[in-house]
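Supplementary notes (optional reading)

For those who missed the lab, this is the record we used. Protein: Pilus assembly protein. Length: 206 residues.
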Amino acid sequence: MTLSPHARAGGAALVTVLFVLIAVLVVAVSAATAALNAEKSARNERDRHIALQAAEAALADAERDIQPLDPATPRAAMFAAGSALGFVDGCGKREDDPDLGLCSRVEAPGVPAWISAALAAEDASGAVAYGAFTGAVMPTGAGTLPARAPRYIIELMPFPRAGEDASQPVTNFYRITAIGFGSRRTTKVVLQSFYRKSVPPEGAAP
């Protein structure tokens, strides 16, 4: 059976239309995929910023912990001038003890506390939750708020200077490591800072 020229032209047009529809469909799917990926990337970036801000807040809270408003508290005694009281191997772990989250320095080739501490663990044993000693409050767990309160540990570090006896510290020098969480528990940011607390001259008020 021989098709008429009109029928052959109609068949060719149908094939052309099908190819055009396929091309449009491919472009539409690609555009939708790109839009979804961009939205996912934006959500991830926003969540990372939430975790970053929480970790920064934890660093600031640790500094307030080191420089307490009330120097008469048991916790403040841990940061007394030239003192290493309370800084223990593996960090203080009991929440009701004033040495919670305080870690002694581990000499090489040992693993330092900021690496070995399970900061992201659900119980976070050995880490200080935000506000635990300062009374600060951070809302968590809803909407764009952090899923969990940030936490930190504090390591006592040496700070000898030229001409000074390293066994008689003139300053209190600390390494603070903090972890913050995004609105999803899987999003984490870890920050670290060093904080030097000057020791007042002998006989001077603290």
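If you only remember one thing from this example: The longest helix spans residues 5-66.
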